[in-house]
Structures are given as C-alpha cells and as structure tokens.
Design a protein that fits this description.
The complex is a heterodimer. Chain A is an alpha+beta fold. Chain A contains 13 helices and twelve strands. Chain A has two domains: 95 residues, no CATH class; 228 residues, no CATH class. Chain B has a single domain, classed as VKOR domain (de novo design (two linked rop proteins), Up-down Bundle). By secondary structure, chain B is mainly alpha-helical. The chains are: A alpha+beta, B mainly alpha.
Amino acid sequence: MSKATTGSSRQVRPTTKNQSTKSATKRPPGGSPPGAAAKKRAAGGHATATAATKRPPASSRGGRQAQGSGTASGRRAPARASFRSRHPVLTALVPVGLVVAVIATMVLLKATGGSSPTASHPASSANTGATALPASVLASLSVPAATLDAVGSPASVVPPTTIGGSGAIMRGADGKPVVTYIGAEYCPYCAAERWALAVALSRFGTFSHLSGTHSASADVYPDTQTLSFYGSSYSSPYVDFQPVEEATNQQVGGTYENLQTPTSAQSALMSTYDAAGNIPFLDIGNRYVITGASYSPQVLQGLSRQQIAAQLSDPSSPVAQAIDGTANDITAAITNVTGSQPSSVANSPAIAAIAKKLGA
Amino acid sequence: MTMAVAATARATTHPRRVRTWAMAAALALSLAAVGIASYLTLTHYSDPAALACPDTGIVNCTLVTTSSWSVMLGIPVAVLGLVWAAVMTALTVPWAWRSGRPWVDRARLAASGAGAAMVLYLVYVELFRIGAICVWCTAMHVTAVCLFGVVLAARVPAPPGDLGPSPG
C-alpha cells in the first residue's frame, strides 16, 4: 500500500498503514543373559577379570554377534569391540565430531553472511542508503547520566500523553513491559524520534545491529540523518522493545518499498490511540503514547550522524536539548511501567521529576 | 585359590569396567558445568549486565542472557542449565558408575546427549537469532559437548588393567 510522500506540515506524519546398548552391564562378554552371567560368576566363570584376560575384550553386542557364529561378520565383531575397548576416545570422537561439525558449519555460515538479523536487512542492498553505524555513533547513544540530568525536560519538547492507569501494563511473553514503535525509514519525524528512543532505551538494555539511514530525499526535512531499527536486536532485563519499520526511504512505483507489517495487535493498538495513523507511533506499556515527533526535525538538518552523535553529550547544544530532552521523557515513562527499575535510572534527579509529572 | 575367589567377588560387584579417567573427567566436567550455570543463574536474577564478559563485536553476554531466547517455557535457560548440570553430577558420581543399574547408564547417556543437542540449538540461536555470543554460555557449551564425549568413551568397557575404583 502506498505511503504519503510529501505534504507534512506538522510534527506528525500522515500515512496509510500497510503497511546399551543394551547396557554392557546387562550381559557380560559372550552374551549370556544376566541370570546366567551371575551363575557363571558365582562359579568362577568368564565374567571375572581373570577370565577376561583370556578372551578378546568384547562389548555385549559384539559378544552376542560372535556367539556361536562362524560368519565373517561374527568374526569381525570381536575385532570391532576390541578396537573400541582399546580406543575409547576415538570411539567417542565420532558422535562428538558430528556435533562439532554442525557447530563449525553454523559458524562458517555466519561468517560468510548467512541468515542473520543484519544480513536480512536491506543495508546490504544498494538502493536503501542504509549503512552500518560507526562505533563512535553507537557509543554516543549511551549518553552520560549527568548530561541527561542537566538537560532535563525542555519546554520545547512535547511530552508523552498519559493514557491512564486503569488497565494492566502491556507485557510481552517474558513478562516485561512492551514498548511498541511503529515508523518508517522515509519519515523525517521518525528519523528525529528514533535518536531519542535509542538514547532512552540504551539506559535499559543493549542494541545490536542498528544501521544508519536517512529520511526520504523528496520529503520535508529531506535526508534527515538517523538510525534504523529494522534488522536490529535489543535485549533488556526490564523492557520488551518491539519496533516496526513499515517502509524504506526508497520509492518503487511511486510508493515506498515495504519493510515490515505491524501485527494485528500492534495495528489495533495504533487504531486505538492513533486513529489518524500518524507515525512515528510509540506506545509505552499501554500507559503512555507519543504520536509524531516530540521535537522538530529541523534541529537535525544539515548534520551528519557523527555530528549529531557528538552533540548528544553537550547539554547546551540544540541537538542535546531536543534528543536528550525527549529521551528523558521517554525514559521517565518507561520507569513508570517497569516499577522504577532499574533504580539507578529511576532515581536520577531528572527522571524522578519527570516521572512524577507524567503520573502513573 | 583365595586370590581367584577375591577376583571373582570383585568382578561380580563391578558390572561395568569403566575407566578411572573417564569417571574422574565426567565428574569434573559436571562440577564445572554446575559452577558455570550457577554463575549464569545468579547474574540472571541479580544483574545480567554484571556478567564478567567483554563487549567486543559479536561477543556480548548481556545481549544474549537478556534476550527473549534466554527464557524457555517461562524458565530461564540458565536455570535449565543448572538443573541439567546437577543431574549430570548425580549421574557421574562414583556411586552412579558402580550402581550397575541399567537405567542409570541410559539416563547418563540420554542426559549428556540432550545436553549436546541443546548446545546445537543454543549456538544456532546465538549466531542467527541474537547475533551475539556469550563467552560464559560458550564455556558451558564446550563443557557439555566434552561431557557427552566422555560419557560415550566411558561406555566402552575397559580392559582389566584399567578398572575403576573398587566399590565398597
């Protein structure tokens, strides 16, 4: 389905959603049943160590095969058993070697770009403009707590809307509160909001495979530099982050190429709290909602990702005021649904104040 | 004659001629698995980010141990690993080797095989679903695969000169 490509006049973006072996213990060499073996042992029979030295060592299976047999296989069985007895490590190496071979194959597939979260991302194809994020940009997403406290919640930033506390906090399969993001790579407002969301979530967990991208060149705030959640992984002991990037920033046949489709539950969530279908849409545990960008993408115009990243740790910069300020609002909302966890984040002065203002 | 009787008695109470080194290695690996799994379980319930683990490139323990794949059927994988290691320890103590009960032998083989199979699944998840490797998990995987090999090797009857310790 198509996405609007131009005409955004606010910080919200109109869009159309598409978008024994028989154990050898049971039978002694020679294959006698347990009862017979016991009788033989009691009579000083073949199960004794002394007797064993007079016979070729044999496993129970080999012994059974050899018993009373004049066939070639019967003659080979004791030899195999003897080999196993003399080389137990080599015998065990066969199945263990299979396990190791499977693991080695997986590592090889991974190393050569097999199916992985990153490899499935169009970052590897030429037409999206998505690239790997430099380590310096990734590191900058972990903004020092002192910087974030210094920024606080500027008046220029639109805070999240509190839905209300009557319903249960939306939780994922693992019991953690769910943070749902729906956006698209072409959308400049999503480009702005992603920075703040990534900074906020970096206080609760770890991202991997984030890639760099930019908003559409033919839209307002063209080529706003940002990162993409598509193909990324996020892990956190506190929250379950579920991002959806509906489309790329490249047009195919007049519409932006589809990337991901929201689940029915995510679509229902968006219909409930964002009837107009504006993106970015952010739902925090079904308690707080953000529709549209919390600050103007104008702040980021003309800046590269590295330049944006570098300003995040300067609390007086316009970029930090916008991104870190929004990140603080999102962080406070998240701590309100995680039961003030982690305490190191929830108890920081700025977050505690914003969380109180937002209400539960 | 007396010696022959003694030898007979020894053999009748030694249902499986298990190599001493295999018994010792299996127990040592099981205890190592208990140690590693205990550490992973403790950090899972305290602070997953506190795992002593480098964060360089594909190596990222926290990413693995806090991912959605770190829980199976509502039970943390670290806890499952600890339970498995405890069971393997129980199955590889000298008493278990000497018991002569077939089910103990089968349970030991099945548990070690299940451990190896679980390793394959978890390595797949780490490489292709999470995109990160946890060094502590890898240590546990190596231990499990080695334990599988030792249990297999121990199932091969030892020659008389390499008997395990005499029971009782």
